[in-house]
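Weekly sync, protein design subgroup
Attendees: M.S., D.O., the rotation student, P.L. (late)

Item 1: inverse folding check
M.S. brought a backbone from last month's batch and wanted to see whether the design step gives back something sensible before we order anything. D.O. pointed out we never logged the input encoding, so this time it goes straight into the notes. Structure tokens as presented (229 positions):
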């Protein structure tokens, strides 16, 4: 995903202006760095770590202790616990939340690759989902054979059509078929099966004197048989 494909400001003014006033009556509290409490649940609100959501420049955020112990709290047998007393330190911080309001610098420009925040971000963020991103993807043998046979069939069909085309066929149609054929050939090169673009006379001959089906074609037939069952 590129930066221009991401909605950095999900709540711009034109959008929230259509919402009931109750939705943004306390909008000044959107920017407070404070714990938020709901009975036994305490979550830290850290707008300074998502400054771009508010149209501000994102700086390298300071370390924030989100207190994992709060997420491991066992409430079994705590039905008589007074949560107001139990979480009184966090309630006290919430009551002083206006003293910890984060105000950033307006900046809606895209951050460059060498922006200090981006350098910091790349150094400590998993940017790719696959754990084997640094390694070349190894497709299963049957999947590779399935694709290789399919591309070879496309290549052969296109090549046959091109050779059989009468002269009156428009040039652009011939070019389209040539592009499809060449793309199939390049795809086969990527999976190391370029030889499948040759004709069947290059295949081994069996005892009956007929060309032996290629490995890809045998796997293709087996897979198709599985689908039918």
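Designed sequence read out in the meeting:
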């Amino acid at each position: 995903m590129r930066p221009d494909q991401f909605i950095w400001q999900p709540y711009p003014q034109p959008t929230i202006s259509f919402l009931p006033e109750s939705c943004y009556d306390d909008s000044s509290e959107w920017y407070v760095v404070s714990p938020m409490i709901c009975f036994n649940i305490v979550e830290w609100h850290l707008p300074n770590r998502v400054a771009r959501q508010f149209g501000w420049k994102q700086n390298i955020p300071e370390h924030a202790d989100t207190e994992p112990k709060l997420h491991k709290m066992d409430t079994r047998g705590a039905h008589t616990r007074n949560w107001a007393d139990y979480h009184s330190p966090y309630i006290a911080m919430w009551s002083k939340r206006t003293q910890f309001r984060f105000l950033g610098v307006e900046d809606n420009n895209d951050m460059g690759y060498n922006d200090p925040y981006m350098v910091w971000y790349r150094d400590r963020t998993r940017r790719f989902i696959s754990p084997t991103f640094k390694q070349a993807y190894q497709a299963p043998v049957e999947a590779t054979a399935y694709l290789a046979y399919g591309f070879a069939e496309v290549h052969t069909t296109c090549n046959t059509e091109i050779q059989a085309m009468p002269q009156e066929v428009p040039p652009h149609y011939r070019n389209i078929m040539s592009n499809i054929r060449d793309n199939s050939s390049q795809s086969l090169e990527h999976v190391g099966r370029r030889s499948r673009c040759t004709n069947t006379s290059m295949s081994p001959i069996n005892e009956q004197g007929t060309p032996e089906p290629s490995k890809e074609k045998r796997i293709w037939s087996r897979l198709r048989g599985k689908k039918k069952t």
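Discussion: The radius of gyration is 31 Å. Strands lie at 34-38, 41-45.
Action: P.L. to compare against the previous round before Friday.
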